[in-house]
Design goal:
Strand order of the largest sheet: 3-2-1-4-5
Largest sheet: 5 strands, antiparallel
Radius of gyration: 30 Å
Distance between the termini: 93 Å
Number of strands: 5
Shape: globular
Order of helices and strands: HEEEHEEH
Length: 172
């Protein structure tokens, strides 16, 4: 039998002490049916880690960023909207979230563009444009809005007050 070098004995001693320090002092013997890992002092399935609870500042619900140009004083700018629960710097988060909820249908994109083959009236609804990004109903959003024809005006007006009302509204 060969002797362990001093460094080997010291490493073994440190390992044993660390193992003893990690073991619970009042651990009860495991039942015979509980699987135990060969190097673990506690049952394997008893050490599952749970995710931490969400922090109050975490926003896991719907979040949209709205950028509006050409809608007029007090309506242009960048707005943040959180829904479920309602928050953000949108002028009326509760009403904005409500209109978005009312226009959300299973299997349909709430922010879908006007289909390219649509026949639209040639009505100019003004220079207002909007760009929406974020997440809604668990799906990413990247949508543009304008008021360049009757179909686009109707699409915009359907989402007022999420989108700002303009002086040339034709519906609602």
């Amino acid at each position: 039998m060969t002797a362990l070098p001093r460094r080997g004995i010291a490493s073994l001693a440190v390992s044993l002490l660390c193992g003893l320090a990690a073991a619970p002092a009042h651990a009860a013997p495991a039942p015979a049916s509980t699987p135990i890992h060969a190097t673990s002092p506690t049952p394997v399935h008893a050490t599952r880690a749970l995710p931490p609870p969400p922090l109050p500042d975490d926003r896991t619900g719907d979040h949209l960023t709205l950028v509006v140009h050409g809608a007029g004083a007090g309506r242009d700018g960048v707005r943040q909207l959180f829904c479920h629960p309602e928050a953000g710097d949108h002028p009326d988060p509760a009403a904005a979230c409500r209109v978005l909820d009312e226009n959300t249908r299973w299997g349909q994109d709430t922010f879908a563009p006007v289909p390219p083959d649509s026949i639209c009236t040639m009505i100019d609804g003004g220079p207002a444009t909007a760009h929406v990004t974020g997440y809604w109903a668990g799906r990413p959003v990247d949508a543009d809005f304008s008021r360049r024809n009757g179909c686009e005006i109707a699409r915009w007006d359907r989402l007022v007050p999420f989108l700002p009302a303009t002086g040339s509204r034709t519906s609602r």
